[in-house]
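Late entry, written up from scratch paper. The run itself happened at the end of the previous shift, but nothing got recorded in the book at the time, so transcribing now.
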Amino acid sequence: MKDYKMWIGGIYSEAASGETFLSTDPYTREDWARFPRAAKKDVDRAVEVAHTAYTEGEWPTWTASARGAALVRLGDLITCHAQRLAEIEVRDNGKLIAEMSNQAKYMANWYAYYGGLADKVEGLVPPIDKPGVVNMVTYEPLGVCALITPWNSPLLLLAWKLAPALAAGNTVVIKPSEYTSASTLELMALVEEAGIPAGVVNVITGFGADAGQALVTHPLVRKVAFTGGEAAGRAINEAAARDFKKVTLELGGKSPNIVFDDADLDAAVPGAISGIFAAAGQTCIAGSRLLLQDGIYDVFLDRLIDMTRAAKLGDPMQADTDISPVATQAQHQKILDYIAIAKDEGATCVLGGKAANPGGSQGYFIEPTIFTDVRNDMRIAQEEVFGPVLSIMRFSDEDQAVAIGNDVLYGLAAGVWTNDLTRALRMSRKLQAGTIWVNTYRSTSYTTPFGGYKLSGVGRENGSQAIMEYLQPKSVWLAEPKPVANPFIRR
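Output as recorded:
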């Protein structure tokens, strides 16, 4: 059992109450780490420390270039420690070491990118229609930002928030998921080594109902960035609105992955598998609704089943494992419940459909599951399962594919598989989603914006636009001193 402590003001801290909670390894079902359970008193202390670091001391005196250099150093340190951080995340959330290793190495690019962008945010001197007056528009940080991260990719999704927040000059309080707090706390040693002043980055550990709520509603928090489920996002949005805080919300998805008759099946079949069974389906961008055109339906389904059946379930620390356990016992049960719902609604389970125990493992495994005869009004086609469960529907033409694809409350992503470039462009325009992949799936980058339509969220992460989510414009008017003819009339 490893004991962790929160990180507040550059000091490792227990909860004021002394209460703790445990993290469970999804593969072994054994408790392996202990964390302080933060409550309002701990949140208040962390936010006040962050606010002091924002208004006083060293951080406010740093130039944008100095902030950028620190972020670049942090990215270099992450690269050096990527494998160790990945192994901790596997222990925490059960995902494949191959995926988490790639994520840990790749996320260093976010710190390098925003480190380089920090001193590239330029103000404006707009032309003014008033003689003798100059106007300047500058961009300033918001203050204390609350960064709330999920359990499926803790460090990568933290990088999406932390890098632009710091590049813009804010201070932060991070609340990782109660299921996956270890890697975030391990990262704090690297934050300190990178030379980022104490109090600029703080971490509290605990549960949403106490620590999370206290953080979102704290009057000194000016921005909330959250990745997670739609219900929690709605509650955060409502709570933040009371104090008019800015929010970035990256929420759920029920993404269509659309395959046309002319698609290259050698690419599209693995693409469909990657879209839903990679990460055991625990990704907001999962292509959980597979739409197949009539002409390829049967051959595609046969190839899909054969390839999926060959996937190896097992120890996520082993390089040859294809599908890992899901992260928590509650999620395991939720997925099984959705499988039962799909069967009750009349969908046909053609593969999987139950819990698994590869090699006698006690981990939270679910067989990769495929349903056919799915109607788009079924719950399995409308609600986010967040597991290795695929719903397959037929379509005849583009109009029907668009109608099915858009007939859902979410709009995070969509995939299109076709060799017709004109069709690809038409579909990209018509599909209501923040990301459209053509002949690929599940690709993201630090260089391009990411976010959703409809219930999939508010705002954008990544790309140059993301830093603006952590800045506020200020208009400065400079006038020549001269007599005012009538002070009661607006000039």
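The chain is about 35% helix and 20% strand.
(Scratch paper discarded after transcription.)
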